[in-house]
């Protein structure tokens, strides 16, 4: 079998921490679209040929592409495909774990077709297509919800008991993929007395508040944001746990409302992904005076517990504790629109999505 693949590759290595160049087909563009012929006869042992169906858009990809911390990611070399998680269909296989026709999720990259090695860093596993829509495996049954699951059950060490019910939660980036899932788990599983959800703009505030009447949305774009947030949380020393997805000035301000000896879960720092100055945490004094436990997390530190997590997430869906219908924003990059893949991903940083931002690459889920 021969397929003609479209692949986005790295054209010019960016400087870690600085914005990428999205002027496609220019000399200094970060990305370049190429066509490449792939032949199933060239498969080596443990490799599979995959047709991409959906791509996951994640802020962390910026660091997979260019990072100053080689302990986190090796980065992408010039000419290599741009890394991304996604869902694909196996077209040919020299791997006993995957047969032709199987659907897989893993690092399929910004490609229409790709040959993938079954090695740990590619995080390949077969998915069950009988349970809901295919794209669910990038949202409510994907990395988004897995991250949220481990936030509560491993890092916050919460159990479904009375002592963990009735808490006040504060969540930044609340209209995003992880944030919106955390709202629902806090409300529907751990029966939070109040969830203060920080989002950008009236439409996103309305979105986060749609999850329940105990959610108070606060618009960080509002000129009176600080006053509105202080009112929403109820004053100093009121927040039982803070889940932070944005970093920057919002992180600096929000820790002021944490109760002493409570936890701040650092999931992301999207506000600083194109501005290194915003990576600086300026309110370190509050960590000391409040004796806060600040914990950074990476999803794949928990790889061995994924099966357990998936079982619990399926249970949440069956109990209507997670909303599957409004869990994602899906953008088309079909056929000639494949040229828009980088711009769709870049939309994360201007907030075009409610819930998970997913790119559709194939017109068929079969």
UniProtKB/TrEMBL annotation:
<dbReference type="InterPro" id="IPR036291">
    <property type="entry name" value="NAD(P)-bd_dom_sf"/>
</dbReference>
<feature type="domain" description="Oxidoreductase N-terminal">
    <location>
        <begin position="23"/>
        <end position="117"/>
    </location>
</feature>
<feature type="transmembrane region" description="Helical">
    <location>
        <begin position="134"/>
        <end position="156"/>
    </location>
</feature>
<keyword id="KW-0812">Transmembrane</keyword>
<dbReference type="InterPro" id="IPR011032">
    <property type="entry name" value="GroES-like_sf"/>
</dbReference>
<dbReference type="GO" id="GO:0016628">
    <property type="term" value="F:oxidoreductase activity, acting on the CH-CH group of donors, NAD or NADP as acceptor"/>
</dbReference>
<feature type="domain" description="Alcohol dehydrogenase-like C-terminal">
    <location>
        <begin position="177"/>
        <end position="313"/>
    </location>
</feature>
<keyword id="KW-0560">Oxidoreductase</keyword>
<dbReference type="Pfam" id="PF16884">
    <property type="entry name" value="ADH_N_2"/>
</dbReference>
<protein>
    <recommendedName>
        <fullName>Enoyl reductase (ER) domain-containing protein</fullName>
    </recommendedName>
</protein>
<keyword id="KW-0472">Membrane</keyword>
<dbReference type="InterPro" id="IPR041694">
    <property type="entry name" value="ADH_N_2"/>
</dbReference>
<feature type="transmembrane region" description="Helical">
    <location>
        <begin position="168"/>
        <end position="187"/>
    </location>
</feature>
<dbReference type="InterPro" id="IPR045010">
    <property type="entry name" value="MDR_fam"/>
</dbReference>
<keyword id="KW-1133">Transmembrane helix</keyword>
<dbReference type="InterPro" id="IPR013149">
    <property type="entry name" value="ADH-like_C"/>
</dbReference>
<dbReference type="Pfam" id="PF00107">
    <property type="entry name" value="ADH_zinc_N"/>
</dbReference>
